[in-house]
Amino acid sequence: MSGSTLFADASRTALSATYWIFVVYLIGPLLLMMAMSFKDATFIAFPVGNWTLDWYVKVMGDQQFLSACLYSLFIAFVTTVAATIIGVWIAMLISAEGIWGKTLIFALACLPAVVPGMISAISLRIFVSVLNMQTGTAAIIMGHTFHAVPFVVIMVLTRLRTMPNSLVDAARDLGADNFVAFCRVTLPFLAPALIGGMIFCALTSIDDFVRTFFLGGYRPTLPMLIFAKVQSGMSPEINAMATIVVVVTAAVGLYAERLTRRSRTR
User: Residue 63's closest CA among 259, 264, 225?
Assistant: First the structure.
C-alpha cells in the first residue's frame, strides 16, 4: 500500500472522527437535558436514578404552559404570513428588470439577519416608543416579522434565479396578465422555497426570546414562561417543557425538509 493511500485513509478517518465528535458536542447536551426530564426528584442532578413520566403529565396539564404554547403559535402564524408576503414582494422587486439600486435593497432587506439580537431588540423597543405603540402582541409580531423577512427573501431569491423566464413568457403569450402569471406560474414554482421559508419563520418566531423580552406585555410566550420558571430554580419540569419543544421542533423541521424535497422533485 502506497504512502498516498495511507495518507488518504488517515485523512478520511480523521474527518469522520471529527464529524462524530461534533455531532456528540451538539446532541450530547440535548440528550442529557431530556434524560433529566425523567428524573423522579424535584432537583437536577446526575445520575438520573429512578425514572418517571410524572413531569410530563404535570406539564401537559399545566394551563399556563398550554396558554403560552397557543399564544406563541398565534404569534408565529401571524409572523409567518406577514414575513412571507413582505419577503416575496421584496424578492420579486429585486429580481424584476429595470429596478435601480437592487444591491442596496437586498442589503437593507438582509440587514436584520446580521444585526445582533440585543441591538435589534433595543432598536425595536425605541421604534415602538417613537410610534407610541403599546408593548404586547402587535409589537412582538412586528419585531418577529422584522427578523424573519430576510430569510424569506434569501430563499425566494435563490429559487427565482433558477426559474426559466420562458415559463412566464409562455403564460403571457397565452393571454395571462401579470397577476395571473404570478399566481399560476411563479407561485407554484416558488412552493419549495415558500414552504421552507414559512417553516423557518414559524420556528424562529417561537424560539425568539430577546425581542419578545423587550417588546412583550404581560402575557408570556413559551420562551418567556420557561425563562420565568428558571428564575425560581431548575427542575425536571423545565426539562420536560424544553424536551417537548425540542421534539416538536425537530419533527416539524424534518417534515418540512421532506416536503421541500418532494416539491423540488415535482
Answer: 225
